[in-house]
Write a structure and sequence with these properties.
Helices cover about 35% and strands about 25% of the residues. By secondary structure, the chain is of the alpha/beta class. α2 packs parallel to α3.
Length: about 120
């Protein structure tokens, strides 16, 4: 039985274009749909307010600004997410320490494991 989620709608919040493209390809290979991307917190907040997502990948640092406000909006909407960062998991704000964390650069297997841990409902 395939343990990877299929057809889940993802938001990817990432300010580095090459990293964004890599993440999109990996999620596509997992059978997930990247339905929206954002490079800034403001863009992400607008998308979160306007669309529904099954999950999200969230860069912790967007152009030098922390993405905690985006994380709070995702929590408020009940959207599970994974923090992604080149920094340490120790840099995650205390209220989000229970969230999955991927250190960049991460492998396909690491992303697949992280997405599986989001416990997304099967479609």
């Amino acid at each position: 039985m395939d343990k990877h989620p299929k057809n889940h709608r993802f938001l990817v919040v990432e300010d580095e274009m090459l990293v964004l493209l890599m993440i999109e390809d990996m999620l596509d290979d997992l059978g997930c749909d990247v339905v929206a991307t954002a490079a800034t917190a403001d863009q992400a907040l607008d998308l979160i307010g306007a669309q529904s997502f099954d999950g999200a990948l969230l860069d912790m640092n967007l152009n030098g600004a922390k993405s905690d406000q985006v994380a709070q909006a995702l929590v408020a909407r009940g959207v599970p997410f994974i923090f992604c960062s080149g920094s340490s998991a120790l840099d995650v704000a205390p209220e989000f320490q229970d969230r999955p964390f991927l250190r960049k650069p991460f492998s396909f297997a690491e992303l697949a494991d992280g997405v599986a841990k989001l416990n997304l409902a099967r479609v």
